[in-house]
TrEMBL record:
Biased composition range(s): Low complexity: 241-295
Lineage, highest ranks first: Bacteria, Pseudomonadati, Pseudomonadota, Betaproteobacteria, Burkholderiales
Name of the protein: ABC transporter
GO cellular-component term (any): membrane
PANTHER family: INTERMEMBRANE PHOSPHOLIPID TRANSPORT SYSTEM LIPOPROTEIN MLAA, LIPOPROTEIN VACJ-RELATED
One Pfam family linked to the record: MlaA
């Protein structure tokens, strides 16, 4: 009888381990999965209990035109990063467009509060130094989830550090004003994507795996464009559930287009060289996933999929 009890306990343990392995299957691109999941959960909890409630209050208090101007202001600052990276990629046409956007929106748009460049036919680009390093041929390295910043890779982490040095808001004085801008950018970005992150939460049982694979697929598209392989994402539901569909990679275009994930985010995503509507205004409903944001900033896990 005692041996039977031990055998039953052993079988139960094996079944439990086997069940866990179906969800946490090792990935060659994610050797740090244990660490990454811990940080991902921390970011997710921080978003759920702090960032999301603050963003909901921000959206409730500020009218749509005000939030649109805040978004345009940070989008204008983000064009400086776009300009630098397009120059580093020897994309002269895009760099010229970025320079003209900065000049027009800064002068005629009252420091970027209003976007006159997009209606004038100057597209909004979405570049960062991680993409530049990828186009230079540097391997991405392992997938990495950063505290506060969310999904990344070793290469993109180096890129994030470089982008932060380029970000004009980092040079504003006094320090309290600069830090206030950082906080405002985070809250405004979170408010813009309330609807998108709600949809993501319902998309898959394993949010970590869904976010990881969508992020890596999008970064590959940003670097390689239409030549990137279109691979279906794995099934993140249970064995009896349907397979989770991968988010479609947006087509590269020179005209303003709504993004499919943040100075930083992504977050699910717009391709390099694709346009985001700089003049877009936050909507009054929760489906705000079409509102552009600047590159690379502190955002929850899921927002890095969108930029």
């Amino acid at each position: 009888m005692k041996n039977k009890k031990h055998l039953t306990l052993l079988l139960a343990t094996c079944i439990s381990v086997a069940g866990c392995s179906t969800v946490r299957a090792p990935s060659p691109a994610d050797p740090l999965e244990g660490f990454n999941r811990t940080v991902f959960q921390f970011n997710d909890d921080l978003d759920r209990y702090a960032m999301k409630p603050v963003a909901q209050g921000y959206k409730f208090v500020l009218p749509t035109p005000v939030r649109a101007s805040v978004t345009n202001f940070f989008s204008n600052l983000g064009d400086v990063d776009n300009l630098a990276n397009n120059l580093l990629q020897a994309n002269v046409t895009a760099a010229t467009q970025d320079l003209m956007r900065i000049a027009i929106n800064t002068v005629f748009g009252v420091g970027g509060l209003f976007d006159f460049a997009t209606p004038a036919g100057l597209p909004k680009h979405n570049q960062d130094f991680g993409v530049t390093l990828g186009k230079w041929g540097l391997p991405s390295g392992p997938y990495l989830v950063l505290p506060l910043f969310g999904p990344s890779t070793i290469r993109d982490t180096v890129g994030t550090v470089a982008d932060l040095q380029i970000d004009p808001s980092g040079y504003f004085k006094p320090i309290w004003f600069r830090n206030t801008l950082y906080g405002l950018r985070v809250v405004n970005t979170r408010a813009n994507y309330l609807g998108a992150t709600n949809l993501l939460a319902q998309a898959a049982l394993d949010k970590y795996s869904f976010t990881r694979d969508a992020y890596l697929q999008r970064r590959q598209y940003l670097i390689k464009g239409s030549s990137a392989s279109e691979q279906n994402l794995p099934n993140y539901d249970d064995e009896s559930g349907p397979t989770a569909a991968a988010p479609a990679a947006p087509a590269e275009t020179s005209a303003p287009a709504a993004p499919a994930s943040a100075s930083e985010p992504a977050g699910a995503a717009a391709p390099a060289g694709a346009s985001a509507p700089g003049a877009a205004q936050p909507s009054n409903n929760d489906n705000d996933n079409a509102v552009p944001v600047p590159n690379r900033q502190m955002v929850p896990n899921s927002l890095r999929l969108f930029h």
